[in-house]
Design brief:
It is built from 4 helices and 6 strands. The protein is α+β, with helices and mostly antiparallel strands.
């Protein structure tokens, strides 16, 4: 399995704009303002957040199911921060906040969630991010 996405940028960084799309039909426009300010449109970090939240939730479901306690639901929100420093922009923080509806004590849920945070494929791909924070709530 290999996922495909395409991005096109036209113009200079300050005045240009672009579009991103996936093979399955997700798409969005982006610009410098949508990435580094609060301009309209999407940005790569938002898409990374969606990928991380989805991967983490699926992996946590796998771990809970292997434990014999499949979840009723897992809802995860990812916030991805980008910092502009002397060496350029860097994704420096990701905050995962998840609500897990499963018949387990909170301590057990936290253990499985920490393992999912470390072992899901997107987490592994983002290993260079300085800080990945996890907050778990039992639903």
């Amino acid at each position: 399995m290999a996922a495909t996405a395409t991005a096109r940028w036209e113009g200079s960084l300050d005045d240009g704009s672009g579009t991103m799309s996936t093979a399955t039909g997700l798409s969005g426009a982006f610009s410098k303002a949508s990435r580094f300010a609060d301009g309209a449109g999407t940005n790569p970090e938002e898409l990374i957040g969606a990928a991380h939240a989805g991967c983490f939730s699926m992996y946590l479901s796998l771990l809970l199911s292997k434990n014999g306690t499949p979840p009723n639901s897992i809802e995860t929100t990812a916030k991805v921060s980008i910092q502009v420093g002397d060496s350029g922009p860097t994704i420096d923080k990701i905050s995962l906040s998840t609500v897990v509806d499963v018949d387990l004590p909170a301590e057990d849920i936290n253990g499985f969630a920490e393992q999912a945070k470390t072992d899901c494929p997107v987490s592994k791909a983002l290993a260079s991010v300085e800080s990945v924070k996890l907050t778990v709530t039992k639903g």
